[in-house]
Write a structure and sequence with these properties.
- By secondary structure, the protein is mainly α.
- It has one domain: Orthogonal Bundle (MetI-like fold).
- Helix content is 78%, strand content 0%.
- The protein contains eleven helices and no strands.
- Helix 4 crosses helix 5.
- The N and C termini lie far apart (48 Å).
Length: 232
């Protein structure tokens, strides 16, 4: 108990002293996870919407795969990305392994099925009459799809938040493809694991507090945006 309390005290001191190592790790974490969830949203929201509003061969297989990959073990995603980016892999010539870009790719692979599957579930629950009414009033199929998808925009926001939560808390995949290199690929989760292993509880607790705080602030901001959207 004393270790936890002293660790919390020193963690607050680190945060308030603007420790450069701490803040470089925080900024890189936000950059990597933020970029990954944007990529996942740009690909996953259209994919989930198309699967929900259109019938096409293999649609059921795609949805099943997305739901299955929601539980994709991070180490498996990390292994696949590692094999693709390693020197002997098909993308090895790009030299991306052990870089923030490799970490973004790994986290995008993890977040994409979460965003897509939750989007599919949200759009599928929209009343079909909305799309049919839009078509009756002369809307194009694309416009009607967009109108139906707009009804699920708040649930889509929740899907993106879920994707960010998964990426920001991920450690296995980014450790495999990033290498946890100080000043280059060390993010909050990998730093917490490393510092705990070597007994550096102060920095580990500080990073843990910041990680929870960031998650709380992002969820709070999204909740406020959802509330304003429903009120307007």
């Amino acid at each position: 108990m004393d270790t936890i309390l002293s660790g919390l005290v020193k963690a607050v001191a680190l945060i308030t002293s603007l420790d450069p190592e701490l803040y470089s790790i925080i900024l890189l974490s936000l950059k990597v996870s933020g970029t990954a969830v944007v990529v996942a949203a740009l690909l996953g929201i259209p994919l989930g919407t198309v699967c929900a509003l259109n019938r096409f061969p293999g649609r059921g297989v795609v949805v099943t795969v997305l739901n299955t990959f929601m539980g994709l073990p991070p180490v498996v995603a990390g292994l696949v990305v590692y094999l693709f980016l390693s020197r002997s892999g098909p993308l090895g010539f790009m030299g991306l392994l052990y870089s923030p870009t490799a970490m973004v790719i790994a986290q995008s692979v993890i977040a994409l099925p979460i965003v897509a599957a939750l989007t599919w579930s949200a759009v599928s629950a929209v009343d079909p009459a909305i799309r049919e009414t839009a078509l009756t009033l002369g809307a194009t199929p694309l416009s009607a799809d967009l109108r139906a998808a707009a009804e699920a925009r708040f649930q889509m926001t929740s899907a993106v938040i879920a994707g960010f939560g998964r990426t920001s808390a991920e450690v296995g995949a980014v450790l495999m493809v990033g290498g946890n290199i100080s000043g280059s690929t060390r993010v909050m989760t990998t730093a917490i694991a490393m510092e705990t292993g070597k007994g550096g509880f102060e920095l580990a607790i500080a990073l843990g507090v910041v990680l929870l705080l960031v998650a709380f602030l992002i969820n709070l901001a999204m909740r406020l945006l959802q509330g304003r959207g429903r009120a307007s």
